[in-house]
Every structure is written in C-alpha cells, then in structure tokens.
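Bump. Still looking for HTH rpiR-type domain-containing protein structure tokens.
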Amino acid sequence: MSFCEQIKKRFIRLSRGQRKVAQFTIDNPNVIATHIASDVGKLIGVSESTVIRFCYAMELSGFSELQEKIRADLMGQEEKVEQSHPLISKRNVNLLNEVMNRDVASILNTINIINEEQFDRAIKLLHESECLYVLGLRQSSPSANFLTCTLSNYRRKVKQIQPLVENIVQQINSMEENALLFVIALEHKADDVLTITKMAKNRKAKVVVITHSCISSIRDNADVLLTVGSQKSALAETITAAHSLIHALVEGMVAQNKKQYTNFQKVNEQLGSNSLYTEKSLYI
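Sorry for the wait, here they are.
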C-alpha cells in the first residue's frame, strides 16, 4: 500500500486543518517532496505547526519522514508509467479539447511545483554565464534545440552539444571553467546524462537541469533542478510544459538587461536578413 493510500484510510480521523494537509499531499506529492514544511503550509493556507501535527497524526517522526514516504511513492509510480500515449487506444470525438486540456494541466502542475528561488537562480545563471552549453538526448533533443535557437536570438556563445559520444566527451573536456551546462532530461532513464553532468561538474561548470522528476538521480549534480509535468503526464505533455518553462526562463533572462538583449536581437535579425538577401542574389 502506498503512503497516499494510507492517508486516505486515516483521512476521516484527522482534524479539519490536517485534512487540508492530507488532501494537498495526495494531490501534489511533488510539492511535498521538494519544499520545506513552512512553504507547504503557506501554499495550503495553514500554519507550519499544522503540517507537523499532520505528520504526527500519520505516526511519522516529522516532515522529513513524510518527504521520504512521498518520494518512495513517486519512485514506485515512475516504474509503472506506461510509455504509450493514453489516447492512442480509444476514439475520442473531443480529441482537440482532450489533448490541449491535458497540456494545460501539465503546465499548471508545473507552476505549482516550481521552486521560485531555483527559478530565479536559473535566470541569474543564464544571464551571467559567459558560455552556455545545451544538452538534450533522444526525445529531449527537440527541446534542447528549441532552447538553443531561442537563446541564440538574444546572446552569443550558445552551443548545443551533439549526441555522438566522441563529440560529447570532446565538448565537455573543452568547456571553459564557470561555463553553464543546461540539461533537458525528460525521459525516465538518463544514466548517460548523469555521467555527462558529472563530467561537467569536474570542469567546475554550473549545471541547470529541467527534468520530469523531483527525485531524479541528476539532482545531486545540479546547481538548479526544475521539475515539469507530473508523474501521470505522458511525455508529450511533459515536453509541452518544458517548452513553456523555457519560454519563462528566457523572458526572465531578457528582463535582467532588456536593452542589451533586444539590441543583440535586432543586430542578429539584421545579419540574418542580409544573409538571406545575399543568397537570393546568387540566383538572379
């Protein structure tokens, strides 16, 4: 029996305030796993002491043990996640509404679980980094390409690491000290990405990670870890949430020095227009 199921069994015996904590825990396990007790209390609208009393009512030693129980639940859910899209096997006359509403739900869940301090730190690292490397393997590769192209509109020295093994090793080994490695790892298995982040940390690079899980093994090598989607989201919905988060991060970076970034964007667009004009003239 999962811990959330245990909460449901004891729900009726809890006080009114404790029931609020219980329901929030069931609905938002990622938040419980990644936030401190006082922050959880603020999100629910109860005191920190109510959160702690809920832990005691569940026969736990405190909030840390609650987090351990919830993380164990989340790990168990990850193992059961089906890779197939849930809509493939059934006809749905409201397919457009169904798919887009689930994308919206994935984005809304991301808003709830993102730690604002981590988000702000990611923006600061994007703004202050001299050289920025972007990594995304397999199904995360299109998201890495989206981030690379978006950042390249506003700043210099943005490089997307190519997926070939020899290229990865060479690029990581040539990485400047204090460079920033931005990793997008949305798949459930990411052992190779874990190895690459370790190599980057050995080069004294900063590492920002967007991942599908707050308990990802990559978190130990990350200076900033941002979680998107939910445990029940299909990969396509998680990717949608990741792109929305990327958009917010880039907007935040630009806001650090709007004049600098908009000037670079204008020059970049002008160079692109001149290049296109030159290419066309070759065929006249």
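The domain at 3-80 is CATH 1.10.10.10 (Arc Repressor Mutant, subunit A).

Edit: fixed formatting.
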